[in-house]
Design brief:
Elements (H helix, E strand, L loop, with lengths): L1 H11 L4 E6 L7 E6 L7 E5 L9 H5 L2 H6 L3 E6 L8 H16 L11 E6 L1 H11 L10 E4 L12 H8 L6 H6 L13 E6 L11 H10 L4 E6 L15 H13 L14 E6 L1 H4 L9 H8 L3 E6 L16 H4 L9 E5 L2 H5 L1 H4 L2 H18 L4 E5 L11 H15 L4 E2 L1 H4 L7 H7 L11 H17 L3
Parallel strand pairs: 3-4, 3-5, 5-6, 6-7, 7-8, 9-10, 9-11, 11-12, 12-13
Antiparallel strand pairs: 1-2, 2-4
Length: 463
């Protein structure tokens, strides 16, 4: 701790404020904060390495001058060693991130522009938090230096495995549970990974590269930089032959991470979207959809409950339970809920039993949503216009939906009358839809076109 205090004094001249706070009541775990003179709102929560046997704070804090000059606050965690009890470092890290967000206004930090940084075993702790949503950490981005990723026997850092897993070190199920590459999803935040090809302590192939592969295969933004030499644990040390390249690459990457918009009503809130292939996005990743991009723009936790071919009012053998009952499978703790549906109901209106039967089931659906989410804001977006719209089944469904939404005080966006998306226009579909014949599914360019319109409606109806 004395070493850390000396380092704090040495760096204090370059920072607005430097201080240490207790994370645990007795101070076994601490958070040391370096605030810049000219803050940009960005902060990085750093988890140092040490093989879960010690905390190598000094090596990690060498980055403070560079990051503070860029207006980035740096927050360093000294966590408790597990000694076989992995909940100790995990709980310390979760609490420290909560502390940063609780003090965000005071420290001039954007609460949805906080990244997580992990060195070596700290990289394992960081990615464990990131890839397990139950910890509710949700950083904006990840910076990983020669991270420990796997807890499996092949290519593992044995000391980290033994210290972290304790009596479960040889338990295959527990090994997989805490191998971060096994738990990456499309929601995993962007990452940059640095490592050396000749790292014998933490082999890059089974660790950094395994995480890169999982991220890339899940459609996440990820960058990997593997230098031919350097070994393990070099950090900011100038002895790394590729020091200048490494610093330049990290700086460039940070410049291209777009911070989320600050909005206290939206930041870190949970938004769910239920619907048909308008939500699931047909054959394309749902990360291209306007609602996903809306959630990420405002730093929201996004949950997609879209299902291709699904209806509001009718079960379908191939496409599952109808939404008027399927909504019960969704979690109870949503803050916002978007419904985007009606396309399949219009196409199958006769099979459903006509417009009266559709209204009956829609009534049950909206009534159920209001009961399940009494505190959440619910909004409904209709399908786009189509050819021969006047007098069509789609027009009937959209008009009926508008009336039902009014009855339940649910804001309703009529995408058919808005005319931003002209699905009836052949030339328009060639540019903005997933295929020229498709009248339902936008491509990424189409979602970008619709986003400002959908966002404007969404923001107007927050209150």
């Amino acid at each position: 701790m004395a070493c850390l205090l000396l380092l704090c004094h040495a760096l204090q001249a370059q920072t607005l404020r430097t201080f240490t706070m207790n994370v645990t009541e007795k101070g076994e775990a601490t958070l040391t904060v370096f605030l810049p003179q000219k803050p940009t709102g960005r902060a990085i929560f750093v988890i140092p390495g040490g093989g879960y046997a010690q905390t190598s704070i000094k090596n990690a804090t060498q980055w403070v001058p560079m990051m503070n000059r860029r207006g980035i606050a740096m927050c360093f965690l000294k966590y408790r060693m597990p000694h076989g009890n992995r909940n100790l470092p995990l709980s310390d890290a979760v609490k420290a991130m909560q502390m940063i967000r609780e003090h965000a206004k005071q420290w001039e930090i954007n609460p949805v522009d906080i990244g997580i940084w992990g060195n070596s075993a700290g990289g394992h702790l960081a990615t464990t938090l990131v890839t397990h949503p139950t910890f509710n950490v949700h950083p904006a981005f990840q910076i990983l230096f020669y991270p420990v990723i796997t807890m499996g026997d092949k290519g593992v850092h044995k000391g980290s495995q033994t210290n972290f897993l304790g009596k479960d070190a040889n338990n295959k199920q527990v090994q997989e549970e805490f191998s971060s590459d096994k738990h990456v999803t499309r929601e995993t935040p962007p990452a940059i990974i640095f490592a050396s090809a000749n790292d014998e302590a933490v082999p890059v192939v089974t660790n950094g590269m395994a995480y890169f592969k999982a991220m890339a295969e899940s459609g996440c933004d990820v960058s990997l930089h593997v230098y031919p030499t350097g070994g393990h644990g070099w950090g900011y040390a100038t002895k790394l032959p590729f020091h200048q390249e490494m610093v330049r690459e990290l700086g460039s990457w940070l410049n291209n991470i777009r911070p989320a918009v600050q909005n206290s009503a939206l930041n870190l809130k949970r938004i769910g979207v239920i619907g048909d292939s308008y939500v699931r996005n047909h054959r394309r990743p749902y990360t291209e959809t306007w609602h996903y991009k809306l959630a990420k723009k405002y730093g929201m936790e996004y949950l997609n409950f879209g299902r291709n071919g699904n209806c509001i009012a009718m079960d379908r053998d191939r496409f599952g339970e109808a939404m008027y009952t399927r909504y019960k499978q969704m979690p109870d703790d949503l803050d916002y809920l978007l419904v985007i549906a009606g396309h399949n109901d219009a196409a199958l209106l006769d099979s459903i039993g006509g417009i009266k039967k559709y209204i009956e089931k829609l009534d049950l659906f909206l009534k159920g949503l209001k009961a399940k989410y009494p505190k959440a804001k619910i909004m409904f977006y209709s399908p786009w216009i189509c050819k021969n719209y006047q007098g069509s089944n789609r027009e009937q469904v959209i008009q009926a939906t508008a009336q039902e939404c009014k009855k339940f005080n649910v804001p309703f966006f009529n995408a058919a009358s808005n005319h931003t998306i002209k699905a009836e226009d052949d030339a328009f579909r060639k540019i903005y839809f997933q295929s020229p014949e498709d009248e339902a599914h936008l491509n990424s360019k189409g979602h970008d076109l619709f986003l400002p319109v959908a966002e404007k409606f969404f923001l107007e109806h927050l209150k």
